[in-house]
Amino acid sequence: MLTLERVTKRFGGLTAVRDVSLDVRRGDLLGIIGPNGAGKTTLFNVIGGYYRPDGGRVVFDGRDVGGRPPHVICRLGLTRTFQLVKPFGNLSVVDNVMIGALTRLRRVSAARLEAERVVETCGLAPHAHARARALPIGLRKRLEVARALATRPRLLLLDEVMAGLTPSELTGIIELIRLLHADGLTLIVIEHVMAAMMRLAQRLVVLHHGEAIAEGTPAQVARDRRVIDAYLGDEFVLAQA
Amino acid sequence: MASLPPRRWAALALLGVAALLPLVVRDAFVLDSLILILMWGALSAAWNVAGGYAGQVSLGHAAFFGIGAYSAALMTARFHQSPWLGLLLGVVLSIAAGGVIGYLSNRLRGPYFALSTIAFSQVLLIVASRWRGFTAGSEGIPVPFRPGLWTLGLGHVAWVYVALVVALVYYGVQVWLETSRIGYQLAGVREDEDAAEALGIASRRLKIRAVTLSAAMTAVGGTFWAQYVGFVDPFYVFSIDLSIRFALNTIIGGMGTALGPFLGSILITSLETYLRATFSGLKTGFAGIYLVIYGTALILVVRFAPEGLTGVAGRLGAWRARADA
Is B147 helix (H, G, I), strand (E, B) or coil? Predict the structure, then answer.
C-alpha cells in the first residue's frame, strides 16, 4: 500500500532521514519508534507532503507521491495527524470533524451527520459542542484522530497521539486504535512510549539518527543488540524479562 | 423561519428599518448618512471576506476600492459609457489585482502580508496621481451626472435602495461563507493552514479565491461610491485611511460575523457624520476630533470587547438564556 524506497531528507548539513525503506501492506499496524530527534516526525512530513524528499521515492498505491502537496495526498486516502495537535481552536469539536468530512462529502448536512458519527466513535460525543481550544490535551489528541478519520483515509498516520497522556487516557486511545485497526484501517503509529507500542503494534521499525536500524515484531526488536544500545538500554531489557 | 438565529433576525430588522426610512424621512442629511452607513457597511463586509473569514488581514483594500472608483469614473468621464460597464471593468481589474494580493498571502504571513497590501495600494495611488494624461492626476476626476439608472444619476431615495441591495447581497455572501462547504473549509484554513491541508483542503487556492472575491466586492462598492459622491480623488480613494476604515468597522463590529461590519459601520459612520456636522463650523482645531473618537472607540473595543459588538451581543444572549433557565 505504501512503500518507501531509500527516502532521504536533509536540512542543510543535517541529514534528518537517511535511506529509509519500508513497506506497509493493507491491514498493517506498523509502529515507528526511536528517541527524540531520530527523524520520526520528519519522515511523516515527507510522507504527508510537507517536505519534499531529497532522495528516494514515496509510493502510495503504486503512485509516486513524493513532493505532492498535503491536500492531494489526503485526497488519495493517506491522512496524518500532528504531534503538536493543531485543532481549529475557535470551532466546536463537531465542526472540526465536519471540516474533515467535507473532503469526501459535498453536502454540509451529510458531512455533519458523518462528523457526529465519528465524534461518537472517538468518544468525544459529550464534548461535541465544546470549543476545541477548551479541551484538555487528552481529548485534543482524540479530536486530532477524529478529524483525520472523517476524511475516510485508507492509511492513517498517527504522530505521537499517546505522548503526554494519563494512564487512563492512554488505555482509552489504545483501545480506539485497536478498534480502528479491527475495522480494517491500515495505520502507521509513531511513538516513543515504548511500552504502549510493545502492546499495540504488529511490526516495529526503529529509527536512530535518521536511519532505520531495526525492523521486526516487538519481541524481535526488543532483543536487537543495536536497538538496545541505541535506544532501549539494558535496563529496559531486564525490566521486560 | 422560526429556526433563524437571533443575529439573523437582527440583521433583517436593521435592513428593514433602512428600507422603510426613506418612506418617512425626506431630509437629505439623514438619507445621506443612511446611504454612507450602508455603503461603508457593505464595503466592510467585503473586507470581512478576506480579513475575517479567510483570516487575511489586509490594510490595502483601498486599492480595490480605487480600482472600482476609477474604472467607473474614467468609463463615464473619458469614454462616455455607462458606469455599469465601469463596474464590470473594475471587477475584472480587481480580480487580477486580488490574485496578486492572494498570491502574496501565500508567501507572507500576518504583519508582513498587511504591510505588503499597504505597499500595493500606495503603488496604485502613485500611478493614479501621476498619470496626468489619463487619470487627470492629483486633481481627481469629477463624475458627470446624467439622470437615469443606466447612468447611475440617481436621487437620494434611489441611492438608498441601491446601497441597500448591495448591503443585502454582501450580507448574503457572508452568510453563505458561514454555512457552506467552502465556508467551513475556509474557516479551517484560517484557524490552522497546515491542519487544513492535512485534511485535504487546497488551502492556497482557497485563500486566493477568498481574497479575490473580497477584492471584486470592494471594487463594486468603490464604483457605487464614486457614482454617488460624484468625484474621485486619488489621495482619498487609495488612502490608508480608507483601508483602515474597512478593517476598523469590521473589527469593532465583529470579525468573521455577517452582522459585524454593518454594526461597526452604524456606530462609526453615524458618530463620524454627527461629529463632523457638529464641529466643522468651529474655526478651532475641532475638525479632526472624529479621529480622536475613532481611536477611542477602537481602544475601548480592543480592551473590553475583543470579539467586537456581535461578541458582546452573543455573551449577553447567553447570560440571559442562563438567567431564564
Answer: strand
Beta strands in chain B (DSSP E): 141-142, 231-232
Domain housing B174: 6-318
Chain B (273-302) residues lying within 8 Å, Cβ to Cβ, of chain A? none
Q: Which helix (H) or strand (E) holds B296?
A: helix B289-304
How many A-B residue pairs are in contact by the CB < 8 A criterion? 81
Instruction: Provide the ipTM.
Output: 0.90
C-alpha cell at A107: 453536502
A148 contacts B192? CB cut-off 8 A:
no
Indicate the number of domains in chain A. Answer: 2
Q: Is residue A21 one of the residues assigned to a domain?
A: yes
Residues of A in contact with B200 (CB under 8 A): 71, 74-75, 79, 100, 103, 151
Q: How far is B268 from chain A (nearest CA, A)?
A: 27
Do A61 and A165 fall into the same domain?
Answer: yes
A214 lies in which domain range?
A: 2-77+156-240
Distance CA B222, CA B268 (A): 19
Residue A170 and residue A141 share a domain: no
Question: Hey, are the CB atoms on B198 and A74 less than 8 Å from each other?
Answer: yes
CA angle B118, B122, B125 (to 5 degrees): 145
pLDDT per position as a tens digit, A171-201 = 889 999 999 999 999 999 998 777 778 888 8
Give the pLDDT band (50/70/90) at residue B1: very low
Residue B40 lies in a domain: yes
Per-residue pLDDT tens over the stretch B267-304:
988 888 887 777 766 555 566 676 777 788 778 888 88
B175 and A CB contact within 8 Å: no
The answer to whether B84 touches B90, Cβ cutoff 8 Å, is no
CA angle (A177 as vertex; A150, A31 as ends), nearest 5: 110
- Number of structural domains (chain B) is 1
Q: Of B195, B197, B202, which is closest to A88 when you measure between CB atoms?
A: B195
DSSP B16-49: HHHHHHHHH---HHHHHHHHHHHHHHHHHHHHHI
Question: Is A82 contained in some domain?
Answer: no
A198 in the same domain as A125: no
